[in-house]
Amino acid sequence: MKKTVQVIWLCLLGCLSFASVAQERVYTVGVANFQANLSMAAQLNPILKWVGQRAGVELVMKSGYNFDDMQRHLARGEYDFYIGFPSLQSMIRQSLSYKVIAALEGEAKSAIIVQYHSPYQTLADLNGHEVAMGSHGIFITNVVPMSVMLAEGVRVKPVTVGNQESLVTEFKLGKHQAVAVNLEVFKRIMGKNNHPYRILWQSPPLMNYPLTVRADVVPNEVVQRVQEAFIHIAQDEDGQAILERSNQRPGIQWKGWKLASEHDYQFAIQCYQRLSAGKRMEP
Q1: Residues with Cβ < 8 Å from 138, sequence gap 6 or more?
Q2: Domain CATH number, residue 55
Q3: In which domain, by residue range, is 139 found?
Q4: 140 occurs within a structural domain
Q5: Whole-prediction pTM
Q6: CA gap 124, 131 in Å, rounded
Q7: pLDDT tens for the 283 residues of the chain, in order
């Protein structure tokens, strides 16, 4: 009887140990709220499943119910991996050890779009007026245009909108005269809609979204396997098919990833720093 109890106890310990190991193999992937969460999950979850299987781990997408909520999770270090620019913010980089390990293929452009018949012709014309844009901290649709206007001495009244889908919808309804957007995503969501608009300003091509990792939390060997899987997905036949299916939906185009480091994102880091310094100087 005593021996039987010992065997059962050892089995329980083994099960607990196995459960602990399995739990350690699950890593969260935070994502900036590029678009509605359901749309983003439909695009990204198949990609994360493929990458996780190749890397021998489970990757679980996690975001906030809106961008500000996501930023709170990010500031608390709740994401093991993160896709998006907010992890490059000065506050986040100083308090947490997020490290760039890859970049989404392609380039991004920030732009300010206005209604076709609006009176705005230059950035200076926006001075004192409302511009709809992403929440504070969103790089393409807030940080870049705001830092550029700050450098030009243009002070606008920012109106934050949850995500690009909502922004485009409200723009088409005529709710906003000027909007700051990710130009490629804006055009994709607009589709063949005949709503007329003008591009008032656009940035030069920018490095696309970074993939970062909490280097002090995720083991180096896991980081390397996940990094390699992300970089190789576009080179794999099954991986290519997953990317193609994901890209049939409007929104971000997941074209694959390439090797990158923080050095490749110095412009982004400087934009965050400039905007942060500008806010500190405000009365």
Answers
A1: 32, 67, 85, 86
A2: 3.40.190.10
A3: 108-206
A4: yes
A5: 0.76
A6: 13
A7: 545 544 444 444 444 444 433 345 899 999 987 777 788 888 899 999 999 999 999 999 998 888 888 889 999 999 999 999 989 988 787 788 899 999 999 988 999 999 999 999 999 999 999 999 987 778 888 999 998 998 899 999 999 886 778 888 899 999 999 999 989 888 888 877 778 999 999 999 999 999 999 999 999 999 999 999 999 999 999 999 999 998 887 667 899 999 999 999 998 988 888 877 655 333 2
